[in-house]
Design a protein that fits this description.
- The protein has 212 residues and is mostly helical.
- It folds into two domains: 78 residues; 127 residues, no CATH class.
- It is 67% helix and 4% strand.
- The protein contains eleven helices and two strands; from the N terminus they run αααααααββαααα.
- The protein has a two-stranded antiparallel ribbon with strand order 1-2.
- β1 and β2 form a beta hairpin.
- α8 crosses α9 and α9 packs antiparallel against α10.
């Protein structure tokens, strides 16, 4: 979980860089493009010395936080190795070492879940509401399952909207009907269900199969 703090700080720096460039230069730039920037590149982007100074600090912070994140992943990976079925999870764009390890340590033997619905429920990716004639009549036990897998798949959903075109379309379609939180949860559930088959059958991620 500590890694998440640094990732969020880095994402904040990405957003600030995007805002600064868009507002002052009138152009859009991707996160990947920002990753490639070096502090000295700020001199070629802005005429204002103040903007150059801010941009240089943002770029430096992004690179520094990136080193911390990679160092944390390396430290964890040196102590715990992913089993084969969980290595397959990392074929999903956005799921790396930390999310893979979190899933492995929380799931244990994927065979203990006889159905995909049991697994997504354990991950707290399905609603606990009980409905009758479209009206809420109560809730099941929301504490069933594990909060860590719930967190992992929400994180995976955030990454998926950035790196998987099909996930972006799915998210936007849900957003048009509901809101961001519900759309993210729906995508998290979809990824959890896909992960179940990826781990059970030890096969790589297939975007076309998930987002037909």
């Amino acid at each position: 979980m500590k890694k998440t703090i640094f990732v969020r700080h880095r994402n904040g720096k990405y957003l600030l860089s995007l805002y600064t460039i868009t507002r002052n230069l009138g152009i859009k730039i991707s996160n990947n493009a920002i990753k490639k920037l070096k502090p000295d590149d700020a001199n070629n982007l802005f005429d204002s010395s103040n903007l150059v100074f801010m941009a240089q600090n943002n770029i430096s912070a992004i690179k520094h936080l990136g080193k911390i994140i990679k160092g944390m992943e390396k430290q964890v990976k040196s102590q715990v190795q992913l089993r084969k079925e969980f290595v397959m999870l990392t074929t999903i764009p956005g799921i790396g070492t930390i999310l893979g390890l979190t899933t492995m340590l929380e799931v244990g033997d994927i065979g203990r879940f006889s159905k995909v619905g049991n697994y997504s429920s354990y991950c707290r990716c399905v609603s606990s509401k009980r409905l009758s004639n479209g009206k809420k009549k109560g809730e099941n036990n929301k504490k069933n399952g594990t909060k860590y897998l719930a967190w992992a798949y929400v994180e995976a959903a955030h990454f998926a909207t950035r790196y998987i075109p099909g996930a972006q379309r799915f998210y936007q379609q849900k957003m048009a009907k509901t809101n961001g939180a519900v759309a993210t949860k729906a995508l998290a559930n979809k990824l959890a269900r896909a992960s179940y088959f990826i781990m059970r059958d030890q096969v790589p991620f297939d975007e076309d199969m998930l987002f037909k």
